[in-house]
Design goal:
By secondary structure, this protein is mostly helical. The chain has helices at 2-10, 12-34, 41-70, 75-107, 111-143, 167-190, 200-203, 218-233, 258-272, 290-315, 318-342, 348-378, 385-395, 397-417, 420-459; strands at residues 205-211, 239-242, 248-253, 279-284. It is built from 15 helices and four strands. It has a four-stranded antiparallel sheet with strand order 2-3-1-4, with helices on one face. The chain starts with a helix and ends with a helix.
């Protein structure tokens, strides 16, 4: 889907980026094997984020190329200038996320460390394929005769959208969504159901070992057995595990009382012909300790602080860094609100999802800030700061939409084609991608503008 989309939108450059993305995927798979990295669900999240950032880098480059063609540059000059102008945004975005991956890899444990390893690998490889492989491919195609401007597309002139005029509406929407999440958590707590729907990893539960009369496949277990167990237990985070070489299946659920155990026995006997004597129960403890949770939070906070310092250093303005972090906090809180309202299970996938949102969102924000910085340097005296910010957001709007779309498509396909454990990871991640796109376009630039004008005026 991504290949077809890139080829339609960017034509020949899209074809070149598709080849580069194939090479990227191949290098990542080889490297995972070479470095013996254990592939977990959070690790797969890191790979997804890496692919999203690899596509993002190509979108940034070719959007720049189309802009250069639009102002009358010839194809060769447009390609060179496009790669050159895209370099700072790609480097800043990727280095910022790489810093987070580095900190999480050092300080994190378990799934956090696995996520950090695959994310760091993906970032390094995506930068190489975007800046080297894609460049070699596109210039090779140009050298063999693909020089017609129509093969590269031309950026149509877009009227500047006044995003800042609507900033109060955008801020209001963000506040309402975030507050609704906290209200939902408060109501659930008052009802005695817990602020969030914590899974087995956090709360412990019951492990049921069942020997069936036939060898069910994973797909059959997920489609036939899981719905029955969910209906009886009321637990929508049932975990199923096959014991290799046998007909035994381990069913992990929330803690079951005697009535629910008897109801489960009856259903397994009547619907699947299980011998009741071959059903055994054990209580299991949580696998995510308080210490592990604390370490994960500390690792994320330190990673965020390091990103803030880097953005401050690169953009020479603390307001860029602070508005980026506030927007990042917005994305995390929106996803948290979704977990609270939809009662999606909070387990190891929760940590992976939040880490993915942190990495994805900051990269999108950097691209807009890079354009604001560039436009600030070349603005004429008649341009107001408001016009510069609106123009910068408008110029990068296509990039924001396209990269959000390609990442959303990947996650949506995971949701549609995945088993239940993958679905519970993909659903919040789709919300996070949408929230990241909204905050990057509607929140970050407006926040920086408010800090630059209102806060500075108040201080002076």
């Amino acid at each position: 889907v991504i290949f077809v989309f890139m080829c339609i939108v960017y034509r020949l450059p899209g074809f070149a980026s598709s080849i580069a993305l194939c090479i990227y995927t191949g290098i990542v798979l080889v490297a995972l094997n070479a470095f013996n990295i254990t592939l977990t669900l959070p690790g797969i999240a890191g790979i997804i984020l890496g692919i999203g950032m690899a596509v993002d880098a190509n979108v940034i480059i070719f959007a720049r190329v189309k802009e250069e063609l639009a102002v009358g540059r010839n194809v060769r000059t447009a390609l060179k200038t496009g790669f050159h102008k895209a370099l700072s945004a790609i480097l800043d975005g990727n280095v910022t996320t790489l810093i987070a991956a580095f900190v999480l890899g050092i300080m994190g444990t378990g799934s956090v460390k696995g996520f950090a390893q695959t994310l760091a690998l993906g970032i390094v490889v995506s930068m190489f394929t975007a800046l080297v492989v894609t460049r070699v491919i596109i210039f090779s195609l140009y050298a063999v005769g693909c020089k017609n401007e129509k093969l590269y597309g031309v950026q149509k002139e877009r009227k500047t959208i006044n995003f800042l005029q609507k900033r109060k509406i955008f801020f209001g929407i963000a506040i309402v969504v975030i507050v609704s999440g906290f209200v939902a958590m408060g109501i659930r707590t008052a009802q005695g159901n817990g602020a969030l729907n914590y899974s087995l990893e956090f709360m412990g539960g019951t492990s049921t070992n069942v020997t069936f009369n036939k060898d069910y496949s994973i797909k059959e277990i997920d489609s036939q057995i899981v719905p029955v167990i969910e209906e009886i237990t009321g637990d929508h985070n049932v975990q199923m595990q096959k014991i290799k070489g046998t007909n035994q299946v381990v069913i992990k659920t929330q803690t079951l009382d005697l009535a629910k155990r008897e109801a489960m026995n009856k259903a397994l006997v009547e619907k699947f012909g299980v011998n009741e004597s071959k059903i055994t129960y054990n209580n299991i403890s949580s696998t995510v300790s308080t210490e592990m949770r604390r370490d994960a939070v500390i690792a994320v906070l330190i990673a965020t602080a390091c990103m803030l310092v880097y953005i401050w250093f690169r953009f020479k303005d603390f307001r860029f860094a602070s508005s980026a972090i506030i927007a990042l906090l917005h994305d995390v809180l929106v996803v948290l609100a979704f977990y609270a309202i939809a009662r999606v299970s909070v387990g190891n996938t929760f940590i992976a999802c939040m880490l993915t949102i942190v990495g994805y969102s900051i990269n999108a924000t950097i691209v807009i800030f890079d354009r604001i910085r560039e436009e600030n340097k070349i603005k004429s005296r008649k341009d107001t700061l408001e016009e510069v910010v609106n123009r910068s957001i408008t110029q990068t709007l296509t990039r924001s939409i396209y990269t959000s779309f390609t990442t959303f498509v990947m996650v949506a396909l995971l949701f549609v084609m995945g088993v239940s454990s993958v679905k519970e990871f993909a659903a919040p991640l789709m919300v996070g991608v949408a929230a990241g796109a909204f905050s990057s376009v509607c929140i970050t630039g407006a926040l920086w503008y408010v800090m630059k004008t209102k806060v500075a005026a108040t201080t002076s």
